[in-house]
TrEMBL record:
It is an enzyme of class 1 (oxidoreductase). It comes from the Bacteria. PANTHER family: L-2-HYDROXYCARBOXYLATE DEHYDROGENASE (NAD(P)(+)), L-LACTATE DEHYDROGENASE. It comes from Robiginitalea marina. GO terms for molecular function: L-malate dehydrogenase (NAD+) activity. Residues 1-142 form the Lactate/malate dehydrogenase N-terminal domain. It catalyses: (S)-malate + NAD(+) = oxaloacetate + NADH + H(+). Residues 147-297 form the Lactate/malate dehydrogenase C-terminal domain. Its EC number is 1.1.1.37. NAD(+) binds at G7, A8, G9, A10, V11, G12, D32, N95, V118, S119, N120. Keywords: NAD, Oxidoreductase, Tricarboxylic acid cycle. This is Malate dehydrogenase. Catalyzes the reversible oxidation of malate to oxaloacetate.
Length: 308
């Protein structure tokens, strides 16, 4: 199983590290436009192999896509991250051009690959890959909901005073500061609804902290986060590589599901060797449906800025 990651920056390198540590892929290729960076990070990571006990071969290439040929899964993390005070949507001007050209180069050498899009604004970048690549929709997956859900579980566990392993919860909708839809009504602590433990007000605070999870870290770090994003991407890669049939919220092209059409937005999907093997339609109440509709309007507004 060969995995290529374009963008050997913070998220790309973190993703490569988690994939290697989980030891399920034979090869990981890092590609970056900055001379020597991908080669250097690959060498540094390979020098962890004997210490961390993995056999995955990690190599790097400066803009040479011939090294990526025959990849089963390709991950796009190339592009600029936001700075404190910015929204993800403000990155569209620079990142759209990068994502479009990187996708074309990747598919030239790996026409059968499944594409995972990470660069922001992620839902719109995923839509761009759909509109420009001609790939079937099961093979284009946007990563956002897996990360947002991990942050939701972190905030729920904090509020509950419970271990994170006790908590289950999911975030759907757009991967933006205002567009996320945490499904609090469905969240549980070891099968017991979290509303049995937490007040309505505390749950609202958890939802708000979840939605601005990326912005909170960007303010603290001066750039956006990379450990949990890298871990979230590696979980999606593993689900596909190992045909796990795991359920994750991912940005998927919708054709009527959730009453939405012609946009990519976070919804629960089953991931296996064919990429998105099924979109799962959760029964939403009126409030959740309204939030999902608002979120979709926001994503569509950003999509309209693309020059397709
Ligand atoms: N979807 C999600 O949940 C998340 C998305 N992101 C997004 O991921 C992207 C990457 O973030 P970081 O890794 O923190 O940024 P970074 O700046 O550390 O790394 C980006 C890398 O992309 C490279 N790059 C730029 N243009 C390229 C091109 N044409 N070809 C190959 N490489 C190119 C840069 O040289 C750099 O090394 C950002 O757009 C960020 O907003 C970050 C975290 C989570
Ligand atoms: O916040 C950002 O810009 C990066 C990102 O998407 C996240 O960490 O959720």
């Amino acid at each position: 199983m060969k995995v290529t990651i374009v963008g050997a920056g913070a998220v790309g390198a973190s993703c490569a590290e988690y994939i290697a540590i989980k030891n399920f892929a034979s090869d990981v290729v890092l590609v970056d436009i900055k001379e020597g960076v991908a080669e250097g990070k690959a060498m540094d990571l390979m020098q962890c192999a004997s210490l961390n006990g993995f056999d995955t071969r990690i190599s790097g290439a400066t803009n040479d896509y011939s090294k990526t040929a025959g990849s089963h899964i390709v991950v796009i993390t190339s592009g600029i991250p936001r700075k404190p005070g910015m929204t993800r949507e403000e990155l569209i001007g620079i990142n759209a051009g990068i994502v479009k050209s990187v996708t074309a180069s990747l598919l030239e050498h790996s026409p059968e690959a499944i594409v995972i899009v990470v660069s922001n604004p992620m839902d719109t970048m995923t839509y761009l890959v759909h509109k420009t690549s001609g790939l079937p929709k099961n093979r284009i997956i946007g990563m956002g909901g897996a990360l947002d859900s991990a942050r939701f579980r972190y905030r729920l566990a904090e509020a509950l005073g419970a271990p994170i392993s006790d908590v289950d919860g999911m975030v759907i909708g757009g991967h933006s500061d205002t567009g996320m839809v945490p499904l609090t009504r469905h969240a549980t602590r070891n099968s017991v609804k979290v509303s049995e433990f937490l007040s309505e007000q505390r749950l609202q605070e958890v939802e708000e902290a979840t939605k601005v999870g990326g912005a909170t870290l960007t303010k603290l770090l001066g750039t956006s986060a990379w450990y949990a994003p890298g871990a979230a991407v590696s979980a999606l890669v593993q689900a596909i590589a190992c045909d796990q049939k795991k359920l994750f919220p991912c940005s998927a092209m919708l054709n009527g599901e959730y009453g939405l059409e012609d946009l990519c937005i976070g919804v629960p999907v089953i991931l296996g060797r064919n990429g998105i093997e099924r979109i799962v339609e959760v029964d939403l109440n009126a409030d959740e449906k309204a939030k999902m509709k608002d979120s979709a309007e926001g994503v569509s507004k950003t999509n309209a800025l693309l020059e397709l």
